[in-house]
Amino acid sequence: MGYLFTYLVTGFGCLAGLFSPFYGLLAFVCLAIVQPTSMWFWDFPPGTLHARFVGAALLTGWALQGFGKWKFGRGAACVGFLLAYWFWMSLSAVQAVDQSRARDYVEFYAKVFLPLLVGLTTVRTMRQVKMLAWVIVLCQGFVAFELNRRYYSGEYLGQEVTFGGMDNNTVAIAMVTGVGLAFFLGMGEPRWLLKGAALVSAALMGHVILFSFSRGGMLALIVTGGVSFVLIPMGPRHCVALLIAIALMIRLAGPEVRERFMRSFEKSEVTGMEASAQSRLDLWADAFDTTLRYPVLGVGPDNWGLIAPEYGWQQGKEVHSYWMQTSAEMGFLGLFLLAMVYLQGIGKMWPLTSEKTRVRDPWSREAARMVVAALVGFCFAAQFVTIKFMEVQFYVLLIGLCVLRLETGNARVGRIPVWNGRAVANRP
Questions:
Q1: Are residues 44 and 164 in the same domain?
Q2: How far apart are the C-alpha atoms of 147 and 171, rounded to whole Å?
Q3: Which end of the chain is least crowded, N or C, by CB within 10 Å?
């Protein structure tokens, strides 16, 4: 089945990408999330290039169509920071300690950012944005289903949950990013079959976070739940759905999960902190010292592990913080540019989450809620995990940027007039 699925998606993506780059993008995102070489490793050896073939086809189709329309509307600043971050990453790689590792890092992000630009310049309608959201949620939900299957079949007994080169912490962060997206996509879907598919996907992702035993992931899941409570309309149906989701996560968290999570708050008699927490603080302090030593370009992308022995850690040790490792490897400006990508995305989308904000398409509110919930959860979790080769957060950001682009046609983002306490419906 995996063999057939992979070649069907690859064939569709290569053909469609040449004539309609957007549909090639959907196939590319599908392959990037499902990762056939990890999902069906017995059929596909490492290095299989299905996604690369699709990527080449959609970039060719994009070029043939004149590279789309480069009008980003309210998302222009976010796109600017994203491209500036990529440029600064490339500049930092030139002077890296190990330039081959740095080039691999830059190349990976090129394979993420170029398709993102394809989507942003070729999306024309909100229907296409919905299609992108559904591809992300269903593919992420399928990965979560497979990880649940492996967990219950005992494949992870005594081992960490891993997938596609991601360790248990990174897997948990990918699922945290998907939970908010799937929950609000389901809540905004009127068709019960699709609503159920999205909400079941959210539940499967939430359970993966729990049995991954990633305490950073569990904390981020709680934060995502809190953000969802703030964003969700205060109607009975929505509140009941959120309470059911919270109760389900509590029920799925078994004694071992709860025990491991609570150990995060234990204190040792020597340091006054739990050992793992103390280790992370020490790593963050060493990464900050590296940033002070190399404040402009850092030590180079994916290179901090090479100088970790200078601080008493084994070679290859990660900082266990996306933000702190970025500052050590790309300097203060690199950290600023990366942080602004997410802050701009969240900040520009936040006003659209309100029922009182004037929008062209009512679904823009649901899209804004799912993007904000997903990105806030990701940003919080990223403080506790070094994230290298994970891309789902950028595809979520793409949803938000496309919505901002399509909503820019409004004269301005304003407030809907209110009459007797009720918002007046938008008029064309």
A1: no
A2: 10
A3: C
